[in-house]
Write a structure and sequence with these properties.
1214 residues, mainly beta, Tachylectin-2, Chain A, 11-stranded parallel beta sheet, 6 helices, 5% helix
């Protein structure tokens, strides 16, 4: 017994512990992370024909209600939430619920499924119906027991069936404690027909732990709706003594619930207290419940979940850190906020400026005369308030202290205001936001809000201290007075917009004004747009100090030409203020500086590439240089730069040196003239120029003196369609080495076009492309189109007049740059010059000190005049010039050293047309020192002219397609100073012949050999010898004795039979034909026999007459220059030593001659008494002097005396 009692006590303790564990969890959820819901409610609306406990669902467009009355269950339908007629009594088959109160119904397909009591109040059963009236009992789905709920369990009640994503959940109330307590439980099943099993988290909702609280004993009648990720439960509750009322709870999983701090959400039972039925129907929430005293069914609807009906009520109940969702509707209240919370409207994530908003939550205070009615009043220090997606409409207020936001003498306030609308504030002293007094620190984040329709005020007035702001993506439109008025503020303005589109009154304060900055600010303004304001866009007060960095903003369409868009009061300290990279467009009075301090406004875009117009700026302002376009991709100055840049001179835009403007130089102003100084190069990563205006001229200082280099697949010049009077003159458009489009691209029809004296070449597209039929004047003359991948002019079938242009080829567009079918290019022009030489064996080569003549030729089409210079360097001397006969009138001037000027022209005669026309020749004397000398037809000064017969024509220019320069090579005379001579008896093994070319060669020939072969190698020469045979003949003036007799013995005489080898040899030995040839083949050298010819090597008979021979030859180099070479060869007999005396001595002092000769041998006595016998030699008999040095002799071991080797072996020589 004691054990059982102990277990019972333990069970009670466990139950209490579990209850205490649940209740604090619910309580803790109220503190700082809860989400409260405010909606606009209507109701209650009493329903006339139904009463009693109801349950409602909507199927399609029909509302179904089951309600209990007099112990019976009725079913009623309606197409409106309140139009139910008296219902039809329900009937049951297979068993009737023991009690018909509080049923729950869902529909699946065409079947209604009801869960209600079974045979007892301890079980729930499933009933099905096809019409909602006739029901068939299916099965018991859940049974309550004391094992589940404890000994005090008496009944289950109030079921609500909720369909999960997978399965079903049954919420219901459980009565315990002998009938003195109701908790709400949940049981789950995978099928609608059960069985349902209690969830482990039960009970899911319990009475308050404080019995005297309104829900201190009984929580009942659950109804659950899931919206998004949140579950909402409405239930009724009471404490046993107070009236039963309606409560609400929220959950993220349907099991762990947090009670609303606004409970009971309907405090008066006569307005509804129990059996809630709630559905979300589109964006409308609908609720039916019963009301005291007669259980009549009443109906409510709301724009959001039923929790709070006013924002202030939610604020009052919220804890620090809570979030309040405000549903659509109008809330006539002004809010007092003294805690850190977040207010989220239905448009919290939708921009009022760029998005499509849903129905608004509108905070619209009602005016209380003589009393300030701020929409938001901060009542405490250290409030962090976030407001998103709400509209604040002050249209119902009229006092001059009625405003959007007020915070006076509150420190530590942080406001995060995003995606809201602020509308229709009345005229308001100070500002319609008023932050003043002691505020440090104060932080304002203002993002993506819309301000409109408010009357005159100072806007957002920050007049306290220690303010930090982040203001971005907001729009102010058609308000009166300033958007902001800041003092002691640090922070940024980014991407905001200010517009004035309506005329709201006669005074300045009736219209939208910009930003006003007074004392001690440190601000950055970036990417903001000010458009159409009749007031200053930026106003800097006399008390201003600190920093103001305004860049990349747009100020446009100012209405008042007498008032500076940027207006600075006298006394302002502007040392920290700068306006850079901003755009002033259609702003007649951009900057008005009344202060003595200088304002830095460089660079900015002033709406014109030529800078601010006269009267645009007043006071001490630095504005030069300025931006050349709105993107400030390049700068323009009023002063000419040193090396390169863009500047304005005499009203024209002038380009000097090399410039690079990403995106191209846009010409958007009618009447603009662009002048490119000589040497200027526009080399953009894009087109050079983009023309979008009429009457635009692009010209170079002199013809061809400046260049446009398009890149990145772009055209050189883009011309928009529909323009008039477009002129491009004297420009080179060069696509060499670049990825390009067309040279000049007309996007469509252009009226009056002048294209003259342009050189357009090496483009990947067309030289000129017309996208439409040119209208009006066509003046297209004097251009050169060359080496373009497309056509010179492409106009499709449009008619284009393009006579007297050059096409890069003498034969015109058919052989050069082509033309489309509608282009008239005949007659055309052409000039190219080239250089030829005479007087030397190789063109453009001359020996030092020699002479060479250059001839200047031209290929001409329709040329009326030529004026060009032939330039040559120091070292060359003009010996003479000779004119041609091409022109009627001509002159050749040589008075300027290094330059020959040719001028030729026709006076009344026909234009010159022809090929290979020699204009003149000049003979140069080369210097004594070798070198290279540039002969330059000067492309920078050449002038060629024409006389067009087509009108109109603004050109008589012809571009030369080519001026072909040359390089004169002055070289030393060819000099072969040495060559190796080699000899062989078998043409296989070779030995070098003694001697040099300068000293002559000496060669042994041996009568024992039939022939001795000769070859040559490794010549020492100052230039490469020409491949081929270089001849050498015999010098017959000095020959060895017996030479001709030697050959006569072989039949080689003057009388030799013609055609025989002897006849040929006679010509060779008499010097008429070469004795041999030096054959050159690249780096290979051979001596070829003159008699036998190739490929036979030079050979000499072994019995050839000995003596000295002399040969004279000529070698030539690859250029054709020659050198005379003398070769001297002396043939001698082999060396012959025929005898020598042999001497012997025993003491190296006294010598005696050994008996014998070299031919017969020597006999010598050796005496064993003597340790050594010494030998020596003297008086050799030899045909030539022996060389100094050691001449070795070796032992012939083939025949030795007996005992020779033992003798030496005894001495250890083995």
């Amino acid at each position: 017994m004691k054990t059982k009692n102990f277990l019972k006590v333990l069970g009670v303790l466990i139950a209490v512990a579990l209850l205490l564990a649940v209740l604090p969890m619910q309580a803790k959820a109220q503190g700082g992370s809860n989400t409260l819901n405010v909606a606009s409610w209507t109701g209650p609306t009493p329903l006339a024909n139904v009463s009693g406990r109801e349950t409602v669902l909507k199927v399609g467009d029909t509302y179904h209600m089951w309600y209990q009355g007099g112990g019976k269950l009725y079913h009623a339908t309606s197409t409106t939430p309140t139009g139910f007629t008296t219902g039809t009594e329900n009937v049951f088959t297979g068993g009737t619920p023991v009690d018909l109160n509080s049923v729950t119904v869902i529909v699946e397909g065409s079947t209604f499924n009801m869960i209600a009591y079974g045979a007892t109040e301890q079980e729930f059963a499933l009933y099905t119906s096809t019409d909602g009236v006739s029901w068939t009992k299916s099965a018991v789905v859940f049974t309550g027991t004391t094992e589940l709920f404890g000994a005090g369990f008496t009944k289950i009640d109030g079921p609500f069936l909720f369909k999960l994503e997978s399965g079903y959940r049954l919420y219901f109330q459980v009565k315990t404690d002998g009938g003195n307590r109701y908790d709400i439980y949940a049981a789950d099943s995978t099928t609608i027909g059960g069985p349902y099993t209690l969830n482990s988290e039960n009970p899911v909702l319990s009475p308050s732990s404080t019995v005297t609280d309104w829900d201190g004993k009984f929580v009942m009648h659950p109804w659950v709706v899931k919206d998004g990720d949140v579950y909402y439960m409405w239930y009724s509750a009471h404490n046993g003594s107070s009236a039963q009322r309606l409560g609400m709870a929220k959950s993220t999983d349907g099991l762990h619930w947090v009670k609303s701090p606004g409970n009971p959400i309907i405090a008066d039972p006569t307005l509804g207290y129990a059996e809630p039925s709630v559905i979300k129907d589109g964006n409308t929430w609908r609720m039916w419940l019963i009301a005291r005293p007669s259980d009549q069914v009443v109906y409510y609807e709301a724009t959001g979940p039923f929790e709070f009906q006013t924002i202030q009520a939610a604020i009052d109940k919220a804890s620090e850190g809570d979030t309040i969702n405000v549903a659509a509707g109008t809330y006539n209240e002004d809010l007092e906020i003294g805690k850190s919370i977040t207010l989220l409207g239905p448009n919290a994530d939708i921009s009022p400026n760029t998005g499509t908003r849903v129905a608004e939550a509108v905070v619209a205070p009602i005016d209380e005369t003589g009393k300030a009615d701020p929409a938001i009043l901060i009542t405490s220090n250290n409030v962090a308030l976030t407001v998103k997606g709400i509209k604040f409409d002050m249209g119902n207020t009229h006092d001059n202290s009625d405003r959007f936001v007020e915070s006076i003498n509150k420190t530590g306030v942080t406001l995060n205001i995003e995606k809201n609308i602020f509308a229709s504030a009345p005229s308001c002293i100070n500002g319609n936001w008023y932050i003043t007094g002691t505020t440090n620190p104060f932080s304002l984040t203002l993002k993506d809000n819309f301000f409109t329709g408010s009357k005159d005020s100072n806007g957002i007035s920050l007049w306290g201290n220690g303010h930090t702001v982040d203001i971005q993506d907001n729009v102010w439109q058609d308000n009166g007075g300033w958007a902001v008025n800041f003092n002691n503020v640090s922070g940024t303005f980014n991407n905001n917009k200010l517009f004035d589109t309506e005329d709201n009154g006669p005074d300045w304060s009736n219209e939208q004004a910009g930003f006003l900055f007074a004392s001690a600010n440190n601000l950055t303004l970036t990417n903001n747009i000010f458009d159409g304001l009749p007031n200053p866009y930026i106003r800097i007060y006399d008390s201003f100090s600190g920093t103001l960095d305004a860049h990349n903003n747009t100020f446009e369409n100012a209405e008042d030409s007498t008032l500076g868009a940027i207006r600075i009061s006298a006394g302002a300290n502007l040392s920290g203020a700068k306006f850079e990279n901003n755009s002033f467009i259609n702003v007649p009075f951009a900057v008005q500086n009344l202060a003595a301090s200088n304002l830095d406004t460089s660079p900015n875009w002033w709406g014109s590439i030529k800078g601010p117009a006269s009267g645009t700026i007043s006071g001490t302002v630095t504005y030069d240089p300025w931006c050349g376009d709105a993107a400030c991709s390049f700068l323009v100055s009023g002063t000419e730069p040193g090396e390169s840049g863009i500047f304005v001179q005499n009203g024209n835009l002038v380009i000097k040196g090399q410039v690079n403007v990403p995106g191209g130089i846009e010409l958007n102003e009618p009447g603009l003239t662009v002048v490119l100084k000589d040497g200027a190069v526009v080399h953009n990563t894009s087109p050079c120029f983009i023309v979008n205006a009429d009457n635009v001229t692009i010209t170079s200082e002199t013809i061809g003196g400046a260049k446009c280099v398009p890149t990145g697949g772009a055209n050189g010049i883009d011309v928009a369609a529909g323009l008039t009077d477009i002129r491009v003159a004297g420009l080179e458009i060069d696509g060499t080495g670049e990825d390009t489009g067309d040279g000049i691209h007309f996007a469509g029809v252009v009226t009056d076009v002048l294209l003259v004296d342009n050189f357009i070449h090496d483009l990947d597209g067309n030289g000129v492309s017309f996208g439409g039929q040119p209208a009006g004047l066509q003046d297209i003359h004097g251009n050169l189109f060359m080496n373009n991948t497309g056509k010179g002019i492409e106009a499709g079938s449009f008619t284009v007049l393009a006579e007297f242009n050059s096409w890069g080829n003498y034969a015109g567009p058919t052989a050069g740059d082509g033309i489309s079918s509608g282009v008239d290019a005949d007659p055309w022009t052409h000039v190219d010059l080239y250089l030829g030489t005479t007087g030397t064996p190789s063109p453009h080569y001359v020996l030092t000190g020699g002479e060479i003549t250059y001839e200047i030729y031209g290929n001409f089409q329709n040329v009326i005049g030529a004026d060009f210079n032939l330039k040559y360097p120091d070292g060359l001397v003009v010996k003479s010039t000779t004119p041609g006969t091409v022109f009627e009138n001509q002159s050749i001037l040589t008075t300027t050293p290094g330059k020959i000027n040719f001028m030729g022209y026709q006076m009344g005669g026909s234009a010159v047309t022809g090929q290979n026309l020699k204009l003149f020749s000049v003979t140069f004397t080369a210097p004594a020192t070798a070198g290279t000398f540039a002969i330059d037809l000067d492309e920078t000064t050449d002038l060629f002219s024409m006389a067009p017969t087509s009108e109109p024509s603004s050109s008589n220019n012809i571009y030369a397609a080519q001026l072909q320069d040359a390089v004169l090579n002055v070289v030393d005379p060819l000099s072969l100073t040495d060559i190796e001579l080699w000899e062989s008896v078998d043409a296989s093994y070779w030995t070098k012949v003694y001697g040099t070319l300068a000293d002559g060669y000496t060669m042994v020939i041996d009568p024992a050999n039939a022939f001795e072969y000769l070859d040559a190698a490794n010549p020492v020469v100052n230039r490469t010898l020409a491949d081929g045979l270089h001849p050498f003949t015999l010098d017959t003036s000095s020959l060895p004795t017996g030479f001709y007799a030697y050959w006569a013995a072989k039949g080689v005489t003057e009388d030799a039979v013609p055609g025989t080898w002897q006849a040929r040899m006679w010509l060779i030995i008499t010097g008429e034909e070469p004795m041999f040839y030096l054959k050159v083949d690249g780096d290979s050298y051979d001596l070829i026999d003159g008699l036998q010819g190739e490929p036979n090597r030079l050979r000499v008979s072994g019995d050839y007459p000995l003596g000295a021979y002399h040969f004279n030859g000529t070698v030539s180099d690859t250029l054709g220059f020659t050198d005379s070479v003398a070769v001297n060869i002396t043939f001698i007999a082999p060396l012959s030593l025929t005898d020598i005396e042999l001497l012997e001595s025993v003491d190296l002092s006294t010598w005696t001659k050994v008996y014998g000769t070299l031919a017969e041998g020597y006999t010598m006595v050796i005496d064993p008494v003597n340790e050594f016998e010494y030998l020596d030699a003297d008086n050799p008999t030899v045909n030539r002097t022996l060389a100094n040095g050691l001449h070795p002799f070796t032992l012939d071991t083939s025949s030795l005396p007996t005992g020779f080797y033992p003798y030496w072996a005894a001495k250890g020589v083995t």
